[in-house]
Amino acid sequence: MTIRRFARREMLFSAMTAATLAACPRSASAQPDVAVAALNNRARARGLFYGAAVSNDMLVKDPGTMARIAAECGMVVAESSFKWADLHPKSGQYDFTRSDALMDWAISHNIRVRGHTLVWHEGNPDWLAGALAEGGGAKLMREHIRAVAGRYAGRLAHWDVVNEAINPVDKQQHGLRATPWLKALGPSYIDIAFNAVAEADPAALRVLNEFGVDYALDWQEGRRVALLKLLGDMLKRGVPVQAVGLQAHLDASITQLDQTILSRFVNDITSMGLKVIVTELDVRDDRLPADIASRDIAVASHARAWLDAVLPNPAVLGVLSWGITDRRSWLNDIFPRPDGLPQRALPLDADLNRKRLWAALADSLDAAPGRVSAG
Ligand code: 9MR
Q1: Under a CB-based contact definition with an 8 Å cutoff, are residues 172 and 189 in contact?
Q2: Would you say residue 314 lies in a domain?
Protein backbone atom coordinates (compact mmCIF):
# COMPACT_ATOMS: atom_id res chain seq x y z
CA MET A 1 0.00 0.00 0.00
CA THR A 2 2.71 2.38 0.97
CA ILE A 3 4.47 2.87 -2.30
CA ARG A 4 1.17 3.14 -4.16
CA ARG A 5 -0.22 5.64 -1.71
CA PHE A 6 3.04 7.54 -1.70
CA ALA A 7 2.96 7.76 -5.51
CA ARG A 8 -0.60 9.03 -5.42
CA ARG A 9 0.43 11.60 -2.84
CA GLU A 10 3.25 12.70 -5.10
CA MET A 11 0.82 13.32 -7.93
CA LEU A 12 -1.54 15.14 -5.63
CA PHE A 13 1.45 17.10 -4.35
CA SER A 14 2.45 18.16 -7.85
CA ALA A 15 -1.01 19.49 -8.55
CA MET A 16 -1.30 21.37 -5.26
CA THR A 17 2.24 22.66 -5.40
CA ALA A 18 1.74 23.98 -8.87
CA ALA A 19 -1.26 25.91 -7.57
CA THR A 20 0.58 27.21 -4.53
CA LEU A 21 3.67 28.16 -6.51
CA ALA A 22 1.55 29.84 -9.14
CA ALA A 23 0.04 31.91 -6.38
CA CYS A 24 3.50 33.11 -5.36
CA PRO A 25 5.54 33.33 -8.55
CA ARG A 26 9.26 33.59 -8.02
CA SER A 27 10.55 36.96 -8.90
CA ALA A 28 14.06 37.66 -10.11
CA SER A 29 14.08 40.86 -8.08
CA ALA A 30 16.04 41.19 -4.85
CA GLN A 31 12.78 41.49 -2.91
CA PRO A 32 11.38 37.97 -2.43
CA ASP A 33 7.67 37.49 -2.91
CA VAL A 34 6.01 37.51 0.49
CA ALA A 35 2.46 38.36 -0.52
CA VAL A 36 1.10 34.83 -0.10
CA ALA A 37 0.40 33.83 3.50
CA ALA A 38 3.55 32.93 5.39
CA LEU A 39 3.99 29.44 6.81
CA ASN A 40 3.20 30.42 10.39
CA ASN A 41 0.00 32.17 9.32
CA ARG A 42 -1.12 29.05 7.50
CA ALA A 43 -0.12 26.92 10.48
CA ARG A 44 -2.00 29.18 12.90
CA ALA A 45 -5.15 28.86 10.83
CA ARG A 46 -5.04 25.17 11.80
CA GLY A 47 -4.03 25.69 15.46
CA LEU A 48 -0.42 24.75 14.62
CA PHE A 49 2.80 26.78 14.45
CA TYR A 50 5.75 26.93 12.09
CA GLY A 51 9.27 27.87 13.09
CA ALA A 52 12.94 27.46 12.23
CA ALA A 53 16.36 27.05 13.79
CA VAL A 54 18.57 30.14 13.91
CA SER A 55 22.35 29.97 14.00
CA ASN A 56 24.27 32.58 15.88
CA ASP A 57 25.98 33.70 12.66
CA MET A 58 22.60 34.29 11.07
CA LEU A 59 21.45 36.40 13.98
CA VAL A 60 24.61 38.52 13.97
CA LYS A 61 25.51 38.73 10.29
CA ASP A 62 22.51 37.97 8.08
CA PRO A 63 19.68 40.49 8.51
CA GLY A 64 18.13 39.33 5.22
CA THR A 65 17.59 35.80 6.54
CA MET A 66 16.42 37.11 9.90
CA ALA A 67 13.82 39.26 8.14
CA ARG A 68 12.49 36.16 6.36
CA ILE A 69 12.46 34.24 9.63
CA ALA A 70 10.49 37.07 11.21
CA ALA A 71 8.04 36.92 8.29
CA GLU A 72 7.56 33.14 8.09
CA CYS A 73 7.95 31.94 11.69
CA GLY A 74 6.02 31.92 14.95
CA MET A 75 8.80 30.15 16.82
CA VAL A 76 12.58 29.95 16.70
CA VAL A 77 15.10 27.60 18.22
CA ALA A 78 18.84 28.17 18.55
CA GLU A 79 20.96 25.85 16.45
CA SER A 80 23.66 25.94 19.12
CA SER A 81 23.47 28.81 21.57
CA PHE A 82 21.39 27.04 24.25
CA LYS A 83 23.72 24.01 24.34
CA TRP A 84 26.22 23.30 27.12
CA ALA A 85 29.29 24.15 24.99
CA ASP A 86 27.93 27.63 24.34
CA LEU A 87 26.35 28.34 27.71
CA HIS A 88 28.70 26.64 30.13
CA PRO A 89 32.18 26.79 28.56
CA LYS A 90 34.04 26.36 31.85
CA SER A 91 33.03 24.56 35.01
CA GLY A 92 30.80 26.90 37.02
CA GLN A 93 31.07 29.71 34.43
CA TYR A 94 28.14 30.60 32.24
CA ASP A 95 27.99 32.77 29.12
CA PHE A 96 24.49 33.83 28.16
CA THR A 97 25.54 36.38 25.55
CA ARG A 98 24.31 34.47 22.50
CA SER A 99 21.24 32.88 24.07
CA ASP A 100 20.13 36.26 25.48
CA ALA A 101 20.64 37.86 22.05
CA LEU A 102 18.29 35.33 20.43
CA MET A 103 15.73 35.75 23.23
CA ASP A 104 15.84 39.54 22.82
CA TRP A 105 15.43 39.30 19.05
CA ALA A 106 12.52 36.88 19.39
CA ILE A 107 10.72 38.93 22.03
CA SER A 108 11.11 42.11 19.97
CA HIS A 109 9.56 40.28 16.99
CA ASN A 110 6.79 38.66 19.02
CA ILE A 111 8.13 35.17 18.20
CA ARG A 112 8.23 32.30 20.67
CA VAL A 113 11.42 30.40 21.50
CA ARG A 114 12.02 26.73 22.23
CA GLY A 115 15.01 25.71 24.28
CA HIS A 116 17.40 23.12 22.81
CA THR A 117 18.91 21.27 24.64
CA LEU A 118 19.75 20.52 28.29
CA VAL A 119 21.09 16.96 28.20
CA TRP A 120 22.82 15.52 25.14
CA HIS A 121 25.94 13.54 24.29
CA GLU A 122 27.09 16.21 21.79
CA GLY A 123 27.41 19.98 21.92
CA ASN A 124 29.20 19.68 25.26
CA PRO A 125 32.29 21.53 26.50
CA ASP A 126 35.48 19.46 26.77
CA TRP A 127 35.53 19.62 30.55
CA LEU A 128 32.14 17.92 30.99
CA ALA A 129 33.07 14.27 30.27
CA GLY A 130 35.96 14.46 32.77
CA ALA A 131 33.75 16.05 35.43
CA LEU A 132 31.09 13.36 34.94
CA ALA A 133 33.69 10.59 35.19
CA GLU A 134 34.84 12.04 38.52
CA GLY A 135 31.33 11.69 40.02
CA GLY A 136 28.76 14.23 41.16
CA GLY A 137 27.02 14.15 37.79
CA ALA A 138 23.50 14.47 39.19
CA LYS A 139 24.46 17.62 41.11
CA LEU A 140 26.18 19.04 38.04
CA MET A 141 23.16 18.37 35.83
CA ARG A 142 20.74 19.87 38.35
CA GLU A 143 22.91 22.98 38.75
CA HIS A 144 23.11 23.51 35.00
CA ILE A 145 19.37 23.07 34.59
CA ARG A 146 18.62 25.38 37.51
CA ALA A 147 20.93 28.05 36.04
CA VAL A 148 19.76 27.80 32.43
CA ALA A 149 16.09 26.80 32.65
CA GLY A 150 15.78 29.04 35.71
CA ARG A 151 17.17 32.05 33.82
CA TYR A 152 14.61 31.73 31.04
CA ALA A 153 11.73 30.48 33.21
CA GLY A 154 8.35 31.57 31.87
CA ARG A 155 9.86 32.78 28.60
CA LEU A 156 10.35 29.53 26.64
CA ALA A 157 7.59 27.59 24.94
CA HIS A 158 9.37 24.22 25.19
CA TRP A 159 12.56 22.62 26.44
CA ASP A 160 14.22 19.70 24.72
CA VAL A 161 15.10 18.27 28.10
CA VAL A 162 16.92 15.18 26.83
CA ASN A 163 18.11 14.87 23.24
CA GLU A 164 18.72 11.60 21.36
CA ALA A 165 18.50 9.22 24.32
CA ILE A 166 17.95 5.97 22.46
CA ASN A 167 20.26 3.91 20.29
CA PRO A 168 19.52 0.18 20.59
CA VAL A 169 22.64 -0.78 18.63
CA ASP A 170 24.72 0.45 21.59
CA LYS A 171 23.36 -2.58 23.52
CA GLN A 172 22.79 -0.68 26.76
CA GLN A 173 19.89 -1.06 29.21
CA HIS A 174 16.43 -0.33 27.70
CA GLY A 175 17.85 0.51 24.27
CA LEU A 176 19.44 3.66 25.65
CA ARG A 177 22.35 5.34 23.90
CA ALA A 178 25.78 4.89 25.46
CA THR A 179 26.47 8.47 26.56
CA PRO A 180 28.63 10.05 29.27
CA TRP A 181 25.38 10.78 31.14
CA LEU A 182 24.26 7.13 31.04
CA LYS A 183 27.71 5.99 32.09
CA ALA A 184 27.83 8.41 35.02
CA LEU A 185 24.26 8.15 36.29
CA GLY A 186 22.64 5.07 34.76
CA PRO A 187 19.18 5.26 33.14
CA SER A 188 17.92 7.57 35.91
CA TYR A 189 19.74 10.49 34.26
CA ILE A 190 16.62 11.00 32.16
CA ASP A 191 14.34 11.16 35.19
CA ILE A 192 16.67 13.57 36.99
CA ALA A 193 16.69 15.92 33.98
CA PHE A 194 12.90 16.00 33.52
CA ASN A 195 12.27 16.52 37.22
CA ALA A 196 14.82 19.34 37.38
CA VAL A 197 13.20 21.16 34.45
CA ALA A 198 9.72 20.74 35.94
CA GLU A 199 11.04 22.52 39.01
CA ALA A 200 13.10 25.23 37.27
CA ASP A 201 10.58 26.20 34.57
CA PRO A 202 7.21 24.49 35.07
CA ALA A 203 5.67 26.48 32.20
CA ALA A 204 7.91 25.12 29.42
CA LEU A 205 6.64 22.00 27.69
CA ARG A 206 9.06 19.18 28.53
CA VAL A 207 10.18 17.32 25.41
CA LEU A 208 12.16 14.17 24.68
CA ASN A 209 13.70 14.86 21.26
CA GLU A 210 14.70 12.02 18.91
CA PHE A 211 15.77 11.25 15.34
CA GLY A 212 15.86 8.20 13.09
CA VAL A 213 12.25 7.03 13.53
CA ASP A 214 10.90 8.03 10.13
CA TYR A 215 11.25 5.08 7.77
CA ALA A 216 10.20 1.46 7.29
CA LEU A 217 13.78 0.29 7.84
CA ASP A 218 14.64 -2.41 10.38
CA TRP A 219 17.06 -0.27 12.35
CA GLN A 220 14.51 2.53 12.57
CA GLU A 221 11.79 0.09 13.66
CA GLY A 222 14.11 -0.92 16.51
CA ARG A 223 14.43 2.72 17.46
CA ARG A 224 10.65 3.27 17.36
CA VAL A 225 10.08 0.27 19.61
CA ALA A 226 12.77 1.44 22.06
CA LEU A 227 11.40 4.98 22.13
CA LEU A 228 7.82 3.86 22.80
CA LYS A 229 9.01 1.53 25.56
CA LEU A 230 11.10 4.29 27.13
CA LEU A 231 8.15 6.70 27.09
CA GLY A 232 5.80 4.12 28.57
CA ASP A 233 8.28 3.34 31.35
CA MET A 234 8.89 7.03 32.07
CA LEU A 235 5.18 7.69 32.40
CA LYS A 236 4.76 4.66 34.68
CA ARG A 237 7.51 6.02 36.93
CA GLY A 238 5.80 9.42 37.01
CA VAL A 239 8.56 11.20 35.08
CA PRO A 240 7.09 14.52 33.90
CA VAL A 241 7.65 14.14 30.15
CA GLN A 242 4.98 15.94 28.12
CA ALA A 243 5.95 15.69 24.46
CA VAL A 244 8.11 13.97 21.90
CA GLY A 245 10.16 15.89 19.37
CA LEU A 246 10.47 14.15 16.02
CA GLN A 247 13.53 15.71 14.44
CA ALA A 248 12.59 14.63 10.89
CA HIS A 249 16.02 14.80 9.33
CA LEU A 250 14.75 13.18 6.13
CA ASP A 251 16.58 11.80 3.10
CA ALA A 252 14.91 12.16 -0.29
CA SER A 253 16.74 9.10 -1.62
CA ILE A 254 15.05 6.73 0.85
CA THR A 255 12.07 4.97 -0.71
CA GLN A 256 10.87 3.22 2.46
CA LEU A 257 8.56 6.00 3.64
CA ASP A 258 5.48 4.16 4.86
CA GLN A 259 2.74 6.59 5.84
CA THR A 260 0.77 3.88 7.66
CA ILE A 261 3.71 2.94 9.88
CA LEU A 262 4.55 6.59 10.49
CA SER A 263 1.05 7.72 11.40
CA ARG A 264 0.57 4.64 13.61
CA PHE A 265 3.82 5.47 15.41
CA VAL A 266 2.73 9.08 16.01
CA ASN A 267 -0.61 7.77 17.25
CA ASP A 268 1.18 5.33 19.60
CA ILE A 269 2.95 8.32 21.15
CA THR A 270 -0.08 10.58 21.40
CA SER A 271 -2.27 7.77 22.78
CA MET A 272 -0.08 7.93 25.87
CA GLY A 273 -1.31 11.49 26.38
CA LEU A 274 1.86 13.05 24.95
CA LYS A 275 2.10 15.86 22.40
CA VAL A 276 4.30 15.67 19.30
CA ILE A 277 6.40 18.43 17.73
CA VAL A 278 8.28 18.21 14.45
CA THR A 279 11.48 19.81 15.64
CA GLU A 280 14.23 19.78 12.98
CA LEU A 281 12.77 19.11 9.54
CA ASP A 282 15.13 19.12 6.56
CA VAL A 283 15.62 16.82 3.58
CA ARG A 284 19.01 15.51 2.42
CA ASP A 285 19.52 15.40 -1.32
CA ASP A 286 23.17 14.34 -1.49
CA ARG A 287 22.34 11.03 -3.18
CA LEU A 288 20.25 12.66 -5.91
CA PRO A 289 21.51 13.88 -9.30
CA ALA A 290 22.55 17.53 -9.56
CA ASP A 291 19.63 18.90 -11.61
CA ILE A 292 18.02 21.53 -9.40
CA ALA A 293 14.44 21.30 -10.65
CA SER A 294 14.24 17.53 -10.14
CA ARG A 295 16.02 17.72 -6.77
CA ASP A 296 13.52 20.34 -5.58
CA ILE A 297 10.59 18.19 -6.67
CA ALA A 298 12.02 15.09 -4.95
CA VAL A 299 12.78 16.95 -1.72
CA ALA A 300 9.37 18.59 -1.64
CA SER A 301 7.35 15.46 -2.40
CA HIS A 302 9.31 13.48 0.16
CA ALA A 303 8.63 16.05 2.88
CA ARG A 304 4.99 16.30 1.83
CA ALA A 305 4.49 12.54 2.17
CA TRP A 306 6.11 12.58 5.63
CA LEU A 307 4.14 15.64 6.81
CA ASP A 308 0.85 14.30 5.48
CA ALA A 309 1.29 11.21 7.63
CA VAL A 310 2.10 13.20 10.78
CA LEU A 311 0.15 16.48 10.77
CA PRO A 312 -3.37 14.98 10.79
CA ASN A 313 -2.83 13.78 14.36
CA PRO A 314 -4.55 16.43 16.53
CA ALA A 315 -1.88 16.15 19.25
CA VAL A 316 0.80 17.43 16.87
CA LEU A 317 1.57 21.01 17.86
CA GLY A 318 3.71 22.37 15.06
CA VAL A 319 6.68 22.10 12.73
CA LEU A 320 10.13 23.65 12.80
CA SER A 321 12.72 23.27 10.08
CA TRP A 322 16.44 23.11 10.92
CA GLY A 323 17.24 26.45 9.32
CA ILE A 324 15.13 28.19 6.71
CA THR A 325 17.37 28.91 3.72
CA ASP A 326 19.82 26.86 1.67
CA ARG A 327 22.37 29.55 2.53
CA ARG A 328 23.13 27.51 5.61
CA SER A 329 22.52 23.88 6.52
CA TRP A 330 24.48 21.55 8.79
CA LEU A 331 23.98 18.93 6.05
CA ASN A 332 26.67 20.53 3.89
CA ASP A 333 29.18 20.06 6.72
CA ILE A 334 28.29 16.46 7.58
CA PHE A 335 26.90 15.02 4.31
CA PRO A 336 28.46 17.12 1.53
CA ARG A 337 27.24 16.32 -1.97
CA PRO A 338 29.92 14.50 -3.99
CA ASP A 339 29.62 17.17 -6.72
CA GLY A 340 30.24 19.93 -4.19
CA LEU A 341 26.88 21.64 -4.85
CA PRO A 342 25.02 22.90 -1.80
CA GLN A 343 22.11 20.78 -0.64
CA ARG A 344 18.61 22.15 -1.23
CA ALA A 345 17.20 20.89 2.05
CA LEU A 346 15.24 23.90 3.32
CA PRO A 347 12.12 25.91 2.38
CA LEU A 348 13.90 28.98 0.93
CA ASP A 349 16.72 29.00 -1.63
CA ALA A 350 20.00 30.83 -1.12
CA ASP A 351 18.40 34.02 -2.51
CA LEU A 352 15.63 33.66 0.08
CA ASN A 353 12.99 32.77 -2.50
CA ARG A 354 10.34 30.23 -1.61
CA LYS A 355 10.99 26.80 -3.12
CA ARG A 356 8.85 23.75 -3.73
CA LEU A 357 9.65 22.58 -0.21
CA TRP A 358 8.08 25.81 1.08
CA ALA A 359 4.99 25.00 -1.00
CA ALA A 360 4.92 21.42 0.30
CA LEU A 361 4.91 22.74 3.86
CA ALA A 362 2.25 25.31 2.97
CA ASP A 363 0.04 22.70 1.31
CA SER A 364 0.44 20.16 4.09
CA LEU A 365 -0.33 22.77 6.76
CA ASP A 366 -3.38 23.92 4.77
CA ALA A 367 -4.57 20.33 4.49
CA ALA A 368 -4.13 19.57 8.21
CA PRO A 369 -7.32 19.34 10.23
CA GLY A 370 -7.87 22.28 12.56
CA ARG A 371 -7.19 21.84 16.25
CA VAL A 372 -7.18 23.88 19.42
CA SER A 373 -3.75 25.46 19.66
CA ALA A 374 -1.91 23.90 22.59
CA GLY A 375 1.65 25.03 22.55
O1 9MR B 1 23.14 22.05 13.34
C2 9MR B 1 23.86 21.95 14.55
C3 9MR B 1 25.34 22.21 14.30
O4 9MR B 1 25.53 23.53 13.83
C5 9MR B 1 26.11 21.97 15.59
O6 9MR B 1 27.48 22.09 15.33
C7 9MR B 1 25.81 20.58 16.15
C8 9MR B 1 26.50 20.36 17.49
O9 9MR B 1 26.06 21.27 18.44
O10 9MR B 1 24.42 20.40 16.31
C11 9MR B 1 23.67 20.56 15.12
O12 9MR B 1 22.30 20.41 15.41
C13 9MR B 1 21.88 19.10 15.77
C14 9MR B 1 20.81 19.25 16.83
O15 9MR B 1 21.31 19.98 17.92
C16 9MR B 1 20.30 17.89 17.29
N17 9MR B 1 19.85 17.09 16.19
C18 9MR B 1 20.78 16.97 15.06
C19 9MR B 1 21.22 18.36 14.59
C20 9MR B 1 22.15 18.25 13.39
O21 9MR B 1 23.32 17.60 13.76
Answers
A1: no
A2: yes
* Confidence at residue 28, expressed as pLDDT on a 0 to 100 scale: 36
Q: How far apart are the first and last CA of the chain?
A: 34
Residues 108-122: pLDDT tens digits? 999 999 999 999 999
Nearest CA to ligand 1 atom 21: 330
Full-model pTM? 0.93
Q: Which of 322, 328, 332, 334 to mutate to test the pocket of ligand 1 (most atoms within 8 A of CB)?
A: 322
State the total domains in the chain: 1
Within a domain: 266: yes
Distance, CA of 321 to CA of 283 (rounded, Å): 10
pLDDT-derived band at 31, boundaries 50, 70, 90: very low
pLDDT above 90 (res 373): no
User: Which residue range is the domain that position 228 belongs to?
Assistant: 23-367
DSSP β-bridge partners for residue 318: 49, 277
CATH of the domain at 31: 3.20.20.80
Confirm whether 229 is domain-assigned: yes
Query: Could you tell me if residue 7 is inside a domain?
Result: no
